[in-house]
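Q: Entry one of two.
A:
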Amino acid sequence: MKRALRLGVFGCVTLSLAVSGALVYICYLQSQVFAYPPRSTYTQTPADVGIAAWREVAFTTADGVRLEGWYIPPPESNGAAILYVHGFTGNRGEFLEIAALLNQHGYGGLLFDLRNHGTSADSVTTFGLHEVRDVQAAYDYLTAQPDLDPQRIGIFGVSMGGATAIRATARMPQVKVLIVEAAFASFPQVVGDGVKRVIRITGSPFSDLIVWMTAQELGVDVSQLRPIDDIASISPRPILIIHGTADVVVPVSHGYRLYEAAGDPKQLLIVEGRHHADWANPPVGDYAATILAFLAHYL
């Protein structure tokens, strides 16, 4: 009887250790994906979506990273332009349809690949920490163009690009308007949401472990990456926050939290059934109308 009990206890302990070890290993694998994201490159150019005037460009960040992109001059003399900031593992091509729509309504733009993405130079992906320098360099490139009005430049960021855009705009008072879609309010929180979605248990301590492991690989404290702490300082410049109800990568709760933390003027668009960075669906309907009306009013 005692021997059977000891074997039972030993089996339970062994199983618990094995499960814990497997979960720790899964956390390690996820931290490696965060630290070394796979690259994707564009398959279309602005010409493929009907943009007639554009050119390949390159510029360098303050810390020496070469970034590549497309510059689209404004088709009208108003000099207005949008700086587009893509998400994690994405590239500049994701914004082509939106850029084409806005170009038809008089806006120029700059679509570029963030560091360690697309065709830009290798670096470290830090989910919006170092990427602020990329946005600053892109903005400096835009303002140097003679056909642009520096007083009429806005930023449109999605997902990690949205978080980056919030942090950058909070530090760049010269940016006039901000649009973000599917942005996370807090990096540790969105990691916790992901852990809960995958293994059906509360994210912590596994999400904490992923964040810690990622920080060790990157050499930066990503636990401090909280765009929700930056967004209020953007006011009184206007911000449009967009989020889809079907987003399982960055749950819609992040959009609501960012909206609550933002100062006025602010606007929230919740799109029923829209998934995370839903590039498969063209920018039409209320989604397009809201963006166009927001820019027409504020930019």
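Q: Entry two of two.
A:
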Amino acid sequence: MNNDNDISDLGKKTNLGEALALVTILVICICTAVILFNDYPTGGPIQLALTFTAFTGILVGFKNKVPWKNIERSISDSLGVAANAIFILFCVGALVGTWILSGTVPTMIFYGLHFLSPEIFFPTACLLCAIVSLTIGSSWTTMATVGLALVGICNVLGLSIPVTVGAIVSGAYFGDKMSPLSDTTNLSPAVAGSELFSHIRHMAWVSVPSFLISLILYTVIGLTMTVPISSSIELNAFTDALQNQFEIGIHLLIPLLILLFMAFKRVPALPTIFSGALIGALFAVIFQNNVVLNLANTPDSHAFVSSVKGITQALFQGYTSDSGVEVIDKLLNRGGMGSMTTTVWLILSAMLMAGVFSSIGVFDILAKALVRFTKSTGSLISVTLSNCALMNVIAGDQYISIIVPGQIWRKEYERRQLAAVNLSRCLEDAGTLTSALIPWTTCGAYIYGVLGLTTFTYIPFCFFNIINPIISAIYGYTGFTIVKDEKALPETA
């Protein structure tokens, strides 16, 4: 977001009534899109709703004599924030395509079907994603690799996909939130003025109980559900069909191990994921050459030419399965950079609106209005959490929802002699976690693009992301773990 003085000063001309009107228009447009197109609201309706709201904001800016060059510059800055996420999305699409073609995803699904019991599948999926994400510090990488395989296993076992995605997201975000390797875990204390490991220890008081409650809920769901597959016959038929289409072997998990190692070494996400896609392409040529040639479907061409075409097709269009087994074809027909275009459209629409709102001062005026409701420490914590969530709604990006509220509330926490870890924890509890619950944020759009489920479907089962901010607010009102001095920080349970 551009914070130049000329933009900020001009933006102050927007009054509270106009800011609230714009937020109301946004809510009405989003609700209308969901009601009219409830089967596929993120396929275009929500994008139009965000664009219309942005256009309305531009009209408000013109009314208040905000120069178009300032609005345009703010839009450009906003789009710049999302540029990295957009190219990561394209690379993830390429990775999914080549990892299916190489047999890496089919291998993960194959072994997962043999080792994951339906009764404990949900808590196991959540715990597995938490461990991987904690190790590498990236919820996005976890969801695009392990998460994708877990969705495939869920499909075969006939389990609930919304519950599975909720468990994947919960686990991935817990690990990301608690990992010192995570970008948001480093960003939050930097913005609030606290220290990284003090910040992580302070978060543990909220995150660990929230995660344990989530695991219990997933366990209860798993133990009380009815498993559609009553015998192993259908499962064996599926794994046999999978083996007929791909070579399956433990060596095909090497691309996953390389990618996790690169992430652990903190290689930036963009080169890490695209390298993973290229490694998948190499493994496809070496171990799945017949599959590559079948995908190319050019029998009259030289084998080398057909291989290049097959790999290229997997990168931009994804993998196409025509095994004749409906479950396998439905599961494996995915991937490719082109599959991410609708998701990218969603992100661009959200960033357009965020840029317009920033240029006309909507963020500033809403933040100042919220200060009136912070009479006690509990209300300050709750309003901070709400501010982060609201910023995700109107700005569409988790980094903005951490940075802007952090800048707004830092001096207020200092004035009340509250330790900076209180603020940094709030920024993560709401700024990071609620980003996965809103369809048009970069995170919500990413989850839809990778796992194929809209936030409206998995929200009820995204237990960790919902429970964590609630417990954080309760702590604020009770005073539990709220510290006045960094040196008085309570020890981790």
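A: Comment on entry two: Confidence is low (pLDDT under 50) at residues 1-11. The CA atoms of residues 398 and 432 lie 6 Å apart.
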